[in-house]
Amino acid sequence: MTVVTRFAPSPTGFLHIGGGRTALFNWLYARNTGGKFLLRIEDTDRQRSTQAAVDAILDGLQWLGLDWDGDAVSQFERKDRHAEVAHQMLAAGKAYRCYCSPEELEEMRAAQKAAGQPMRYDGRWRDRPESDAPPGVAPVIRLKAPQEGQTVLNDLVQGEVTVQNAQLDDLILLRADGTPTYLLAVVVDDHDMNVTHVIRGDDHLTNTFRQIQIFHAMGWDLPRFGHIPLIHGPDGAKLSKRHGALGVDAYRDMGYLPEAVRNYLLRLGWSHGDDEIISTEQAIEWFNLESIGRSPSRFDFAKLENLNAHYMRLADDTRLVGLIAPRLEADLGRSLTDADRDLLTRAMNGLKQRARTVVDLAQSARFYVAAQPLSYDEKASALLDEKGRGLLKELAEAFAGEPDFTAAALEAQVRAFAEARGEKLGKVAQPLRAALTGSTVSPPIFEVAELLGREATLSRIRDAAGAA
Ligand code: GLU
């Protein structure tokens, strides 16, 4: 059997982080088993579905690197097929027309509420002849759901879950205007798309029992179901915006790399021993449904950031320059030149060791391409006092005569320079750092000087030496 999974978002908003995880699990399971990962856009709610949301979802999936097989299916475009199936059920006696008016339904609900009973359709048109149909009322089509016994789900994550059929009423398959309900559409699509595994959030568990009844009514094979516990905030409460319930695009904007987000989402609900760092290749190799946890996982930005720092260090230097370039350009108000990009690429290895996000990285790379004179932060300014400036003035002269402008030669030069003045290395190196970077934190300062080159280094030192 070829495994077929699917991701079935409703395009009523961006691809949120929980949806990203559902997509990831489905994608990984398909890739692990050599199966297929399909994408279905559940756009039947015409009021709430927008093209902008479809685009945001596709964009989010692409950014996460979750490629789907074949074309994305639009559920709305399949509405005739959904209606056809409802009529098949009708013809087979598995469904019936219900002519209840909205007022009647309202009365029914009110009476149930008053009696303290759960609200459900009472089945009054189940066995009533069509000849009773009131004139001018467009009927809905309802499933003739089993009233006795129970429906048992062997969930791949939750284990065995049972619901008494008496608790489930006769759901609507086709509305009075002929449009299919969500429950019907999902079942027909999963069947027609040969979906073998439905992996989704456990907020869909109740729907699943109703969907199973539709599968049974049609005599179709059931897919396997796996309901993943939802993601909670660090405090155990439902995930809120503050906790990270954001669109995938917000993670990109916050400077996270897609491979880090993938790794993080994987660990939110799936485990492989104590492994925290799991590359996508390993994830594809190891992913299984048995190791999805049964309890809700908690979103933790600190963990995501640690993983991101790890993947930043592994990332290709040219790629990272490409990622920080737009941020730097916006910040500097000009385009980066080829020389800037070249310098940043050569500097990247030193920069990426310290950065936790792309935002950090852009910030820490800024001094390389910033206009002179640099602006000095408070601590840097403090180092450029009279003594610091005096040392820098002399150092500029020493550097100017240095034939070999390499990190090693410059370091030797500064060591000798400090020693000759009875100063510790830091007393000279720190003002130098302030002069070259405008800050007191940077990659190793002699490497910075080598990368900047003689001309820029000397001119920055002279700027700083002259700074009042
Ligand atoms: N369209 C549903 C949602 O966005 C998912 C349905 C499903 O996975 O079956 O929550």
UniProtKB/TrEMBL annotation:
GO terms for cellular component: cytosol. It comes from the Bacteria. Residues 3-305 form the Glutamyl/glutaminyl-tRNA synthetase class Ib catalytic domain. Residues 326-464 form the Aminoacyl-tRNA synthetase class I anticodon-binding domain. Keywords: Aminoacyl-tRNA synthetase, ATP-binding, Cytoplasm, Ligase, Nucleotide-binding, Protein biosynthesis. It is found in: Cytoplasm. SUPFAM superfamilies: An anticodon-binding domain of class I aminoacyl-tRNA synthetases, Nucleotidylyl transferase. A motif ('KMSKS' region) lies at residues 238-242. GO terms for biological process: glutamyl-tRNA aminoacylation. Its EC number is 6.1.1.17. Its main location: cytoplasm. A motif ('HIGH' region) lies at residues 9-19. GO terms for molecular function: ATP binding; glutamate-tRNA ligase activity; tRNA binding; zinc ion binding. It catalyses: tRNA(Glu) + L-glutamate + ATP = L-glutamyl-tRNA(Glu) + AMP + diphosphate. The keyword Protein biosynthesis applies. ATP binds at K241. Pfam families: Anticodon_2, tRNA-synt_1c. Belongs to the class-I aminoacyl-tRNA synthetase family. Glutamate--tRNA ligase type 1 subfamily. Catalyzes the attachment of glutamate to tRNA(Glu) in a two-step reaction: glutamate is first activated by ATP to form Glu-AMP and then transferred to the acceptor end of tRNA(Glu). Monomer. HAMAP family: Glu_tRNA_synth_type1 (MF_00022). This is Glutamate--tRNA ligase.
